[in-house]
């Protein structure tokens, strides 16, 4: 019998969510777990509103200035929105993934990995547009 990979992923995700919920209930109690879940959903709503407003204003400004839309900027906003939607969904594992996607450094890492197609560990220098190359005579080390 062969299962669809998406079905298997969702099944594992659901099992993980239930196991983590049971752990949180054991540690914080049922009312604490429910309260924590509600709080993360409220945080997700606030972040989604903020991300949506920032994306709308940014697109409006680019539209009025007749500038081209950057694929990276649109994808970055989409990942942030996905992160906030994951915060809204019930479940602590989805909350952790959502919190990670809200962080700009994680979003840039995910975008870099999706563009290069490499999600494993890589050896050697990575292409990072925020890296500044200096020659040995342009810097000194201070102890």
TrEMBL record:
<dbReference type="Pfam" id="PF04186">
    <property type="entry name" value="FxsA"/>
</dbReference>
<feature type="transmembrane region" description="Helical">
    <location>
        <begin position="6"/>
        <end position="28"/>
    </location>
</feature>
<dbReference type="InterPro" id="IPR007313">
    <property type="entry name" value="FxsA"/>
</dbReference>
<keyword id="KW-0472">Membrane</keyword>
<protein>
    <submittedName>
        <fullName>FxsA cytoplasmic membrane protein</fullName>
    </submittedName>
</protein>
<feature type="transmembrane region" description="Helical">
    <location>
        <begin position="35"/>
        <end position="59"/>
    </location>
</feature>
<feature type="transmembrane region" description="Helical">
    <location>
        <begin position="79"/>
        <end position="103"/>
    </location>
</feature>
<keyword id="KW-1133">Transmembrane helix</keyword>
<keyword id="KW-0812">Transmembrane</keyword>
<dbReference type="GO" id="GO:0016020">
    <property type="term" value="C:membrane"/>
</dbReference>
<feature type="region of interest" description="Disordered">
    <location>
        <begin position="120"/>
        <end position="143"/>
    </location>
</feature>
